Amino acid sequence: MTTSSKSTKKLSLSQLYSAEQIATRVKELARQIDHDYRGREILIVAVLKGAFLFVADLVRAVETPTIVDFIRLASYGSATQSSGIIELRKDLEISIKDRDVLVIEDIVDSGQTLESLRTLLLNRQPASLRICTLIDKKAQRIVEVPVDYVGFSMDDGFIVGYGMDLDEKHRDLPGICLVQDI
Length: 182
Known about the structure:
The chain is an alpha/beta fold. The chain is built from three helices and ten strands, in the order E-E-H-E-H-E-E-E-H-E-E-E-E.
């Protein structure tokens, strides 16, 4: 698969996970979450922007009662590697104090962004805090952060699709693709 951006450079993509593989894994994660949260309500904290498709599919697959709020952090800008500087661009609108919180992230890479978020949320005194990520990418992990639910694990490489982007492009791809020429 090749796609072009506004510049003349063509981006070479190869499919890593199909839409069908993702849908199957989302249903499996939903069953695990339903089991672990049986009889409780979950406050889902969706990390924007990359997790928006994952969150939408997961919330529809989970049978446990949920409330959803959104938070937006940034550490990439238009780069393909984290800058290490974490910015809070949109905060939660709902208090998480004494609630069972499940953070939904698209990808855990260095771990720095997620650890910053985890610390921020723990300071707000939730009853519990768990983390679910679609992609756990371990090759560049700098900070070990506990992840309770993992969709897929991969070693390295830059990926786009299913909500994840390269400079705000390619979020609309139904599957997840590995960018070949970065």
